[in-house]
Amino acid sequence: MKKTVFFIALLLLTAYSLHAQDLQLTRNGQISFFSSTPVEDIKASNNEVSSVLNTKTGSLQFVVLIKGFQFRKAAMQDHFNRKEYLDSDKFPKSEFKGTVSDISKVNFKKDGTYPVTVEGNLTLHGVSNKIKVPGTITVKAGKISAASKFTIKLADYNITVPAIVSSKIAESVEITVNCNYEPYQPKS
């Protein structure tokens, strides 16, 4: 699976090769999610997220392998990947393709934390939906990081919760994204 993520990241970079000096890349970004019900909290994180940010155009893409999410309880991880939930064998990855719509607000040559808006298509469980979420881009000592926190509804992605466990699983999930980017260095 790691080879698949690397291959996808490589394809994304190839598509951007004309503007390599504007590209920022990470292969170890983090996406986590959290849901809470009176019965149980569920949280997991994935630290093998690939992302490409074009600092000139604002183009932003993410790829995350569903089986890469780690839970504190092995049973939760097993259920999460089953056909009844995320069906990670049929839908092995989630993707986001979009833009930082107000990229011109970010001065990549000056340290600071810049609020931004990210818009695009989030694909999860074989379903794509347009999303528009707040985020921040931080520039510190020439390094770029990005963060966002937003909520999605499971039903919007055709993820149904079996009635028998509906008291344990929330209808909405809070997603947190954190990425530390490095400049893309094409191989000579």
TrEMBL record:
It comes from the Bacteria. InterPro entries: Lipid/polyisoprenoid-bd_YceI, TTHA0802/YceI-like_sf. SMART domains: YceI (SM00867). Keywords: Signal. Residues 1-20 form the signal peptide. Residues 22-182 form the Lipid/polyisoprenoid-binding YceI-like domain. Pfam families: YceI. PANTHER family: PROTEIN YCEI. This is YceI-like domain-containing protein. It comes from Lacibacter cauensis.
